[in-house]
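Protocol step 4 of 5: obtain the predicted structure for the target chain.
Materials: sequence only (see below). No template structures provided, no constraints applied. The aim of this step is simply to have a reference model before the mutagenesis design in step 5. Sequence pasted as it appears in the construct record:
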Amino acid sequence: MATAKMLFAMADYGHDPTETAVPYMAFKKAGFEIQFATENGKTPECDEKMLRGITQKLLGANRFTVNAYDEMSKTPEFCSPLSWSSPDFSLNSYNLVFLPGGHEKGVRQVIDSPIMHKQLAEYFPATKKPSKKTVAAICHGVMVLSETQDANGKSIIHECDTTALPARFEQFAFWGTRVFLGDYYKTYGVGSDDVEVSVRKRLDDPAKQYKNSLSPSPFIVQDQKYNYLSGRFPNDAQLLAEKTIDLVKSNLS
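Step 4 output (C-alpha coordinates):
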Protein backbone atom coordinates (compact mmCIF):
# COMPACT_ATOMS: atom_id res chain seq x y z
CA MET A 1 0.00 0.00 0.00
CA ALA A 2 1.26 3.47 -0.89
CA THR A 3 2.18 5.85 1.92
CA ALA A 4 -0.58 8.36 2.56
CA LYS A 5 0.44 11.97 2.09
CA MET A 6 -1.51 14.52 4.11
CA LEU A 7 -1.65 18.23 4.87
CA PHE A 8 -2.78 20.27 7.86
CA ALA A 9 -4.08 23.57 6.42
CA MET A 10 -3.76 26.19 9.17
CA ALA A 11 -3.82 29.84 10.13
CA ASP A 12 -0.73 31.45 11.64
CA TYR A 13 -2.37 31.51 15.07
CA GLY A 14 -5.43 30.32 16.91
CA HIS A 15 -6.21 26.70 16.15
CA ASP A 16 -7.29 24.45 18.99
CA PRO A 17 -4.32 22.40 20.25
CA THR A 18 -6.39 19.26 20.89
CA GLU A 19 -7.93 19.36 17.41
CA THR A 20 -4.43 19.68 15.94
CA ALA A 21 -2.05 17.64 18.10
CA VAL A 22 -4.31 14.65 18.80
CA PRO A 23 -4.97 13.96 15.09
CA TYR A 24 -1.32 14.66 14.30
CA MET A 25 -0.13 11.98 16.71
CA ALA A 26 -2.64 9.49 15.30
CA PHE A 27 -1.64 10.19 11.69
CA LYS A 28 2.03 9.98 12.61
CA LYS A 29 1.51 6.63 14.31
CA ALA A 30 -0.35 5.41 11.22
CA GLY A 31 2.71 6.15 9.11
CA PHE A 32 1.27 9.07 7.13
CA GLU A 33 3.65 11.54 5.50
CA ILE A 34 2.60 14.82 7.15
CA GLN A 35 3.05 18.39 6.04
CA PHE A 36 1.70 21.66 7.42
CA ALA A 37 0.87 24.80 5.50
CA THR A 38 0.15 28.37 6.60
CA GLU A 39 -0.53 31.38 4.44
CA ASN A 40 3.09 32.49 4.05
CA GLY A 41 4.99 29.57 5.54
CA LYS A 42 5.10 30.93 9.09
CA THR A 43 5.31 28.30 11.82
CA PRO A 44 1.76 27.97 13.19
CA GLU A 45 0.88 28.54 16.82
CA CYS A 46 -2.20 27.11 18.46
CA ASP A 47 -4.44 29.10 20.81
CA GLU A 48 -2.32 29.84 23.88
CA LYS A 49 -5.39 30.16 26.12
CA MET A 50 -6.25 26.53 25.40
CA LEU A 51 -2.65 25.43 25.94
CA ARG A 52 -1.31 27.23 29.02
CA GLY A 53 -2.53 28.99 32.14
CA ILE A 54 -5.83 29.09 33.98
CA THR A 55 -8.07 28.86 30.89
CA GLN A 56 -6.21 25.73 29.80
CA LYS A 57 -6.68 24.14 33.19
CA LEU A 58 -10.40 24.95 33.30
CA LEU A 59 -11.46 24.74 29.65
CA GLY A 60 -8.56 23.68 27.46
CA ALA A 61 -6.22 20.86 26.57
CA ASN A 62 -5.53 18.01 28.96
CA ARG A 63 -2.02 16.96 29.99
CA PHE A 64 -1.79 14.33 27.24
CA THR A 65 -2.62 16.93 24.60
CA VAL A 66 -0.17 19.49 26.00
CA ASN A 67 2.59 16.88 25.83
CA ALA A 68 1.52 15.87 22.31
CA TYR A 69 1.49 19.50 21.22
CA ASP A 70 4.94 20.12 22.66
CA GLU A 71 6.24 17.07 20.79
CA MET A 72 4.55 18.09 17.54
CA SER A 73 5.83 21.66 17.77
CA LYS A 74 9.44 20.45 17.66
CA THR A 75 9.09 18.42 14.47
CA PRO A 76 10.57 19.61 11.15
CA GLU A 77 7.22 19.48 9.38
CA PHE A 78 5.59 21.76 11.95
CA CYS A 79 8.52 24.18 12.21
CA SER A 80 8.94 24.50 8.43
CA PRO A 81 5.44 24.62 6.92
CA LEU A 82 4.64 25.24 3.29
CA SER A 83 2.98 28.44 2.12
CA TRP A 84 -0.56 27.88 0.89
CA SER A 85 -0.48 31.27 -0.83
CA SER A 86 2.59 30.37 -2.90
CA PRO A 87 1.88 30.38 -6.68
CA ASP A 88 3.14 26.80 -7.03
CA PHE A 89 1.25 25.40 -4.03
CA SER A 90 -1.45 22.81 -4.72
CA LEU A 91 -3.53 20.40 -2.67
CA ASN A 92 -3.75 17.92 -5.54
CA SER A 93 -0.82 15.75 -4.46
CA TYR A 94 -2.33 14.97 -1.05
CA ASN A 95 -4.44 11.97 -0.13
CA LEU A 96 -5.82 13.85 2.87
CA VAL A 97 -6.45 17.48 3.73
CA PHE A 98 -7.18 18.03 7.42
CA LEU A 99 -8.79 21.22 8.75
CA PRO A 100 -8.51 21.65 12.54
CA GLY A 101 -10.84 24.00 14.36
CA GLY A 102 -10.51 26.60 17.06
CA HIS A 103 -12.59 29.59 18.13
CA GLU A 104 -9.79 32.17 18.51
CA LYS A 105 -10.27 34.95 15.97
CA GLY A 106 -6.98 34.16 14.24
CA VAL A 107 -8.56 31.16 12.51
CA ARG A 108 -10.48 33.56 10.31
CA GLN A 109 -7.29 33.82 8.28
CA VAL A 110 -7.97 30.41 6.76
CA ILE A 111 -11.79 30.38 7.01
CA ASP A 112 -12.08 33.59 4.99
CA SER A 113 -9.15 33.10 2.60
CA PRO A 114 -10.01 33.36 -1.12
CA ILE A 115 -6.76 31.51 -1.81
CA MET A 116 -7.71 28.54 0.36
CA HIS A 117 -11.23 28.64 -1.05
CA LYS A 118 -9.82 28.33 -4.57
CA GLN A 119 -7.62 25.43 -3.54
CA LEU A 120 -10.47 23.57 -1.86
CA ALA A 121 -12.92 24.30 -4.67
CA GLU A 122 -10.54 22.38 -6.92
CA TYR A 123 -9.71 19.62 -4.47
CA PHE A 124 -13.00 18.75 -2.80
CA PRO A 125 -14.90 17.57 -5.93
CA ALA A 126 -12.08 15.05 -6.44
CA THR A 127 -13.04 13.38 -3.15
CA LYS A 128 -16.27 12.09 -4.70
CA LYS A 129 -16.28 8.32 -4.37
CA PRO A 130 -14.51 6.30 -5.63
CA SER A 131 -11.42 8.39 -4.95
CA LYS A 132 -8.05 8.30 -3.22
CA LYS A 133 -8.55 11.83 -1.88
CA THR A 134 -10.14 12.66 1.48
CA VAL A 135 -11.03 15.77 3.49
CA ALA A 136 -11.58 15.80 7.26
CA ALA A 137 -12.58 18.80 9.36
CA ILE A 138 -13.52 19.50 12.95
CA CYS A 139 -15.34 22.35 14.72
CA HIS A 140 -14.61 25.67 12.95
CA GLY A 141 -12.60 23.75 10.37
CA VAL A 142 -15.93 22.76 8.81
CA MET A 143 -16.54 26.45 8.11
CA VAL A 144 -13.54 26.56 5.80
CA LEU A 145 -15.48 24.12 3.62
CA SER A 146 -18.94 25.56 4.09
CA GLU A 147 -17.68 29.04 3.15
CA THR A 148 -15.94 27.77 0.00
CA GLN A 149 -18.15 28.11 -3.06
CA ASP A 150 -18.18 26.12 -6.27
CA ALA A 151 -18.67 27.53 -9.77
CA ASN A 152 -22.43 27.72 -9.18
CA GLY A 153 -22.09 29.76 -6.00
CA LYS A 154 -22.95 26.85 -3.72
CA SER A 155 -20.84 25.60 -0.85
CA ILE A 156 -18.61 22.72 -1.85
CA ILE A 157 -20.32 20.66 0.89
CA HIS A 158 -23.85 21.72 -0.08
CA GLU A 159 -24.92 18.11 -0.71
CA CYS A 160 -22.90 16.46 2.07
CA ASP A 161 -23.82 15.13 5.46
CA THR A 162 -21.83 16.98 8.10
CA THR A 163 -21.56 18.08 11.67
CA ALA A 164 -19.76 21.02 13.29
CA LEU A 165 -19.65 22.77 16.65
CA PRO A 166 -23.20 22.63 18.10
CA ALA A 167 -24.76 26.04 18.71
CA ARG A 168 -25.72 25.03 22.24
CA PHE A 169 -22.07 24.27 23.08
CA GLU A 170 -20.90 27.54 21.55
CA GLN A 171 -23.53 29.59 23.39
CA PHE A 172 -22.76 27.87 26.70
CA ALA A 173 -19.04 28.59 26.36
CA PHE A 174 -19.64 32.18 25.26
CA TRP A 175 -22.11 33.20 27.98
CA GLY A 176 -20.28 31.20 30.63
CA THR A 177 -17.03 33.09 30.06
CA ARG A 178 -18.16 36.47 28.73
CA VAL A 179 -17.59 38.33 32.01
CA PHE A 180 -13.97 37.15 32.09
CA LEU A 181 -13.07 36.67 28.42
CA GLY A 182 -15.38 39.04 26.52
CA ASP A 183 -16.27 37.71 23.08
CA TYR A 184 -13.34 35.27 23.00
CA TYR A 185 -15.65 32.33 22.28
CA LYS A 186 -17.30 34.10 19.30
CA THR A 187 -14.89 33.93 16.39
CA TYR A 188 -16.70 36.64 14.44
CA GLY A 189 -17.69 38.71 17.44
CA VAL A 190 -20.82 39.31 19.49
CA GLY A 191 -24.00 38.90 17.47
CA SER A 192 -22.43 36.77 14.73
CA ASP A 193 -23.91 33.45 13.65
CA ASP A 194 -22.97 30.36 15.60
CA VAL A 195 -20.89 27.85 13.65
CA GLU A 196 -23.85 25.47 13.41
CA VAL A 197 -26.06 28.21 11.96
CA SER A 198 -23.37 29.22 9.45
CA VAL A 199 -22.90 25.65 8.25
CA ARG A 200 -26.62 24.85 8.09
CA LYS A 201 -27.18 27.85 5.82
CA ARG A 202 -24.87 26.32 3.22
CA LEU A 203 -26.58 22.92 3.00
CA ASP A 204 -29.28 21.94 0.49
CA ASP A 205 -31.41 20.24 3.16
CA PRO A 206 -29.99 21.06 6.59
CA ALA A 207 -32.73 19.18 8.44
CA LYS A 208 -31.48 15.95 6.85
CA GLN A 209 -27.82 16.69 6.20
CA TYR A 210 -26.73 18.35 9.44
CA LYS A 211 -26.08 15.69 12.06
CA ASN A 212 -25.85 16.64 15.71
CA SER A 213 -25.17 15.19 19.11
CA LEU A 214 -25.10 17.00 22.44
CA SER A 215 -23.42 14.09 24.17
CA PRO A 216 -19.82 14.61 25.34
CA SER A 217 -19.02 11.16 23.93
CA PRO A 218 -17.05 11.15 20.64
CA PHE A 219 -19.25 11.70 17.60
CA ILE A 220 -18.28 12.04 13.95
CA VAL A 221 -20.12 12.08 10.61
CA GLN A 222 -18.93 10.32 7.48
CA ASP A 223 -20.53 11.35 4.21
CA GLN A 224 -21.61 8.64 1.78
CA LYS A 225 -21.01 10.45 -1.54
CA TYR A 226 -17.66 12.01 -0.77
CA ASN A 227 -14.63 10.97 1.25
CA TYR A 228 -15.47 13.61 3.83
CA LEU A 229 -15.55 13.26 7.61
CA SER A 230 -16.39 15.85 10.24
CA GLY A 231 -16.36 16.28 14.01
CA ARG A 232 -17.77 18.78 16.50
CA PHE A 233 -15.19 19.73 19.13
CA PRO A 234 -12.05 18.45 20.91
CA ASN A 235 -13.73 15.35 22.37
CA ASP A 236 -14.16 14.06 18.81
CA ALA A 237 -10.56 14.56 17.66
CA GLN A 238 -9.24 11.06 18.37
CA LEU A 239 -12.22 9.26 16.83
CA LEU A 240 -12.18 11.55 13.81
CA ALA A 241 -8.51 10.78 13.26
CA GLU A 242 -9.05 7.03 13.63
CA LYS A 243 -11.98 6.93 11.19
CA THR A 244 -10.08 9.14 8.75
CA ILE A 245 -7.07 6.82 8.89
CA ASP A 246 -9.32 3.83 8.18
CA LEU A 247 -10.90 5.56 5.19
CA VAL A 248 -7.61 6.79 3.70
CA LYS A 249 -6.00 3.37 4.06
CA SER A 250 -8.98 1.60 2.51
CA ASN A 251 -8.90 4.00 -0.44
CA LEU A 252 -5.21 3.36 -1.02
CA SER A 253 -5.30 -0.41 -0.62
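Step 4 remarks: The domain at 5-252 is CATH 3.40.50.880 (Rossmann fold). The mean pLDDT is 96.
Proceed to step 5.
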